[in-house]
């Protein structure tokens, strides 16, 4: 591996020479962003703002629903074989990220480089990171070693791009994933996937590269592959492969990949299918490699028909073969949808990036879906789905906040609310059936005939539980609500006069401050 392999995403040129007053985990996003810009990360933050734009109408406290964004990048690394990840950030952040990663099934350790104020502002932290990446760089065990700057090191300008590009043949990938620069954990997956694709593309352009293990045995002579972009349910790539077969195509690797060598095969695909629409940096790398990118996914009848046509045209397949692929699968999908109807009004929100696809499938199954909220931004790769939904009167809210999702529940009073954990909690407190999108909806096949019938059972069962929620609310009454929340050994005694006195004091302070400002 040569030392001049493609650079990673970090763009700072030096660590800050002076400490920034008030910089720390508790500092607001604006303070951290200003510190990062002053420390040389301005170009990186500008690129993030272009790739992952905030809502143009967002206020200072509007935030799309998400885990800590860095979890997305951490997850990508942990799912790859022969890849190790090292975190550089505050101890509390690292604890939360490692806890969450193991909760989601990680079976390997996560490296951590601790720091204090002195090592942060003197540049010693970068030296500690450089030392930490040398120790595990064993080519017999690793293909790549990922280093992730969290908020405080990013704001302090810790320059991961100065790390060696490779150590003993182990690739070093350094990225910044600050919460004040990357809005959601979904988009943080793209930060690392894009950085890896950039590195792998430079390797492939420099000369021959190794094929993934077993790749040659799995190839069908004469068939070109379609690279799938986005984390998919395990059965979906197999279903997509069956859809593509009449066109002489096959399903290629799924990005983010499970091993480094699959990146080469992904870049070599005839077409890239942007199943999840927020992988902006990854799309840029595929386009730089000369690969056409197709939006949307084969969900439901209409989605599958449009997707097969778009894929076929992008791959240069003749219309006869495209029509044959449609004729083979569309009647089956139509029959499955008719056999598994969904009746009811549903509001839908989430932060996985597949919310619009699920909404399409629900509508074709017979459900009313007046509102879809997604934490992800509007991109060209979600536009076909947005247009299809808008034509059917659906409000599509990009960069949806918790408040907007809750407002939709109040406005539409659905039979079922599908959403994030706080959305589900809000609905259940009001005796509305609800389902957690990530575990109960997105963790199911969505593509082709398998996806057409996958949602009806769980959706209809949840809607049918409305009477049980009413019984529970009648039984428990206001227990656990408001001032009665928590564990009590005696019946809580309310003191509304205390709250009224506090309110009067707050109003008095506000008036005094306003008067002082006028002086």
* Widest β-sheet, arrangement of strands: 2-1-3-5-4
* Gap from first CA to last CA: 67 Å
> Helical amount among residues, as a percent range?
40-55%
CATH superfamily membership of the largest domain, which one? Answer: Nitrogenase molybdenum iron protein domain
Summed over residues and divided by their number, the pLDDT gives a mean of: 89
Largest sheet: 5 strands, mixed
Oligomer type: single chain
CATH architecture classification name of the largest domain: 3-Layer(aba) Sandwich
Structural class, by secondary structure, is alpha/beta
Number of helical segments? Answer: 22
The figure for the number of domains is 3
Taking all Cα atoms into account, the compactness measure Rg is 25 Å
In brief, what are we looking at here?
The protein has 519 residues and is an alpha/beta fold. 47% of the residues lie in helices and 13% in strands. It folds into 3 domains: 29-206, Rossmann fold, CATH 3.40.50; 215-336, Rossmann fold; 340-474, Rossmann fold (3-Layer(aba) Sandwich), CATH 3.40.50.
Summarize the helices and strands and which ones pair or pack.
Elements: H1 29-51, H2 70-78, E1 83-88, H3 91-103, E2 111-112, H4 117-122, H5 124-134, E3 144-149, H6 151-155, E4 166-167, E5 170-176, H7 185-206, H8 215-218, E6 224-229, H9 235-244, E7 249-255, H10 262-267, E8 271-274, H11 280-288, E9 293-295, H12 300-314, H13 319-339, E10 345-350, H14 355-364, E11 368-374, H15 383-390, E12 395-398, H16 402-412, E13 416-419, H17 421-429, E14 434-436, H18 437-440, H19 448-452, H20 456-463, H21 466-476, H22 496-518
Parallel strand pairs: 1-2, 1-3, 3-5, 6-7, 6-8, 8-9, 10-11, 10-13, 11-12, 13-14
Antiparallel strand pairs: 4-5
């Amino acid at each position: 591996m040569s030392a001049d392999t493609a650079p990673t995403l970090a763009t700072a040129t030096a660590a800050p020479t002076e400490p920034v007053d008030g910089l720390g985990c508790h500092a607001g996003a604006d303070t951290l962003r200003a510190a990062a810009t002053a420390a040389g990360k301005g170009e990186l933050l500008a690129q993030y703002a272009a790739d992952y734009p905030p809502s143009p109408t967002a206020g200072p406290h509007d935030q799309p629903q998400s885990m800590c964004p860095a979890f997305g990048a951490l997850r990508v690394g942990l799912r790859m074989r022969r890849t190790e990840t090292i975190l550089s950030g505050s101890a509390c952040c690292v604890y939360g990220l490692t806890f969450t990663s193991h909760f989601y099934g990680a079976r390997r350790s996560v490296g951590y480089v601790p720091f204090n104020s002195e090592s942060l502002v003197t540049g010693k932290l970068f030296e500690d990171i450089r030392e930490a990446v040398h120790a595990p760089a064993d080519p017999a065990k690793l293909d790549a070693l990922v280093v992730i700057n969290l908020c405080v090191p990013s704001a302090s300008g810790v320059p991961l791009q100065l790390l060696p590009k490779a150590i003993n043949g182990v690739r070093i990938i350094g990225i910044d994933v600050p919460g004040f620069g990357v809005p959601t954990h979904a988009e943080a997956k793209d930060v690392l996937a894009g950085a890896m694709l950039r590195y792998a593309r430079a390797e492939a352009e420099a000369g021959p590269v190794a094929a993934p293990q077993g790749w040659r045995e799995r190839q069908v002579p004469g068939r070109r592959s379609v690279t799938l972009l986005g984390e998919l349910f395990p059965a979906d790539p197999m279903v997509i492969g069956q859809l593509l077969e009449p066109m002489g195509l096959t399903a290629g690797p799924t990005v983010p990949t499970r091993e480094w060598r699959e990146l080469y095969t992904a870049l070599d695909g005839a077409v890239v299918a942007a199943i999840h629409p927020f992988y902006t940096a990854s799309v840029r790398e595929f386009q730089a490699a000369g690969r056409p990118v197709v939006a949307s996914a084969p969900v439901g009848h209409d989605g599958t028909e449009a997707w097969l046509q778009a894929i076929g045209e992008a791959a240069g397949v003749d219309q006869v073969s495209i029509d044959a692929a449609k004729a083979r699968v569309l009647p089956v999908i139509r029959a499955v949808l008719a056999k598994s109807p969904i009746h009811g009004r549903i509001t839908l929100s989430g932060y996985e990036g597949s919310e619009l696809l699920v909404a399409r499938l629900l509508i074709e199954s017979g459900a009313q879906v007046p509102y879809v909220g997604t934490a992800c931004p509007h991109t060209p790769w979600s536009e076909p789905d947005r247009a299809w939904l808008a034509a059917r009167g659906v409000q599509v809210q990009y960069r949806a906040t918790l408040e907007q999702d809750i407002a939709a529940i109040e406005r539409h009073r659905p039979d079922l609310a599908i959403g994030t954990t706080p959305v589900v909690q809000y609905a259940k407190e009001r005796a509305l059936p609800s389902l957690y999108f990530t575990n109960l909806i997105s963790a199911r096949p969505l593509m082709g005939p398998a996806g057409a019938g996958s949602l009806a059972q769980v959706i209809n069962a949840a809607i049918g539980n409305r009477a049980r929620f009413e019984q529970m609310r009648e039984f428990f009454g206001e227990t656990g609500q408001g001032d009665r929340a928590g564990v009590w050994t005696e019946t809580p005694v309310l003191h509304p006069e205390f709250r009224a006195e506090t309110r009067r004091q707050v109003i008095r302070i506000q008036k005094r401050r306003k008067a002082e400002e006028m002086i």
